[in-house]
Design brief:
mainly alpha; globular; ABC_transp_permease; 2% strand; two-stranded antiparallel ribbon; 4 strands; transmembrane
């Protein structure tokens, strides 16, 4: 445990120093928002065994709720964030109460169908701005003191929000409640035979996951001062699955690594294609740079074929093999 805490401390110091090491703050904040979203999804799939294909509904609903509260109602920043989390949690309660009545692929399809209903509601509702989205959301001042219009101030606020969300997930996984969730994942009939109300535990896990995903969505609205339909599409639900599987399903740090890989590809594949085209004169590199989804798909196939546990899972397994060989 001491080594783990030391590792977290070292990573925290490195992340805090990134803006001074030449890393663009907006890029780092985007990674943290998506990483928190992926961690929330991993809590549901990796530790409870429930595949939700509609998690973008919570990201998008919190983004719109926080943006509307900040821009139209003029709420303080912290209240807008909490309102976004509350809306996502309530939506999670409704969707979860319906979806947990089924399991497996039926659970996934129900969550997808409900998320699509939420998406079309956002598309037609006036307060969301339709296809244009909700633009010009003010960042405001945190606690009336810290000016979030400056990226460096917002960076450390987002870092603190991510740390809070990650700690909640870490504490949940290492609590008796988390052990019950793992039991549900491994053998639900046995958990029922031991007297656990499995539907109640699954619903609690679903609502908690939705609330943390909502925290990521509300924070993302602050970072990009906007909320758009892309936050609520089924493609976003698929993207968070990719993040989790690439990083390592059922690991605490895997979704963070997966989110970093996906965001890095989205932002840098085009630059790499341009660089290689200039270097070699081959125009097909330009087309490669424009086809980010193809590159992400190829990397996902490679990870599934060669790293079935994900990057973090395979690395942990390699360390275990080394320890066993030494012993």
């Amino acid at each position: 445990m001491n080594r783990q805490l030391l590792g977290y401390l070292v990573v925290t110091i490195i992340v805090a120093a990134l803006p001074f090491l030449g890393v663009y703050p907006i890029f780092a904040m985007k990674v943290m928002c998506y990483a928190l979203f992926a961690c929330a999804f991993n809590l549901l799939l990796g530790y409870t065994g429930l595949l939700s294909f509609g998690h973008a509904a919570f990201l998008g609903s919190a983004a719109y709720a926080a943006g509307h509260a900040l821009k139209v109602w003029g709420w303080p920043t912290e209240m807008g964030l909490l309102f976004g989390v509350l809306v996502a949690a309530l939506l999670g309660l409704v969707m979860g109460a319906i979806a947990i009545r089924r399991s497996g692929i039926y659970f996934a399809m129900i969550t997808l169908a409900l998320a699509q209903m939420v998406f079309f509601f956002f598309l037609q509702a006036k307060f969301t701005g339709g296809e244009d989205g909700l633009q010009g959301v003010p960042r405001g001042k945190l606690l009336g003191v810290i000016d979030l219009a400056q990226d460096i101030n917002l960076y450390y606020v987002v870092m603190g929000i991510f740390a809070i969300g990650y700690f909640i997930i870490w504490r949940t996984v290492h609590s008796p409640f988390g052990q019950v969730l793992k039991g549900l994942r491994e053998n639900e009939p046995r958990a029922i035979s031991l007297g656990y109300d499995t539907d109640r535990f699954k619903l609690l896990a679903f609502v908690l996951s939705a609330a943390i995903a909502g925290l990521a969505g509300a924070t993302k609205t602050l970072v990009f001062v906007s909320a758009t339909l892309s936050d609520a599409t089924w493609q976003m639900s698929g993207l968070v699955i990719l993040m989790t599987l690439i990083g390592g399903l059922g690991t605490l740090t895997g979704p963070i690594i997966g989110a970093f890989v996906i965001v890095l590809l989205e932002n840098k594949v085009g630059d790499f294609g341009q660089f290689m085209a200039n270097l070699t004169g081959a125009e097909w590199f330009l087309r490669l740079g424009e086809s980010v989804t193809i590159v992400i798909g190829l990397i996902f196939v490679i990870c599934v074929m060669a790293f079935r546990r994900g990057l973090v899972g395979e690395f942990s397994a390699w360390l275990e093999r080394r320890r066993a060989a030494r012993a």
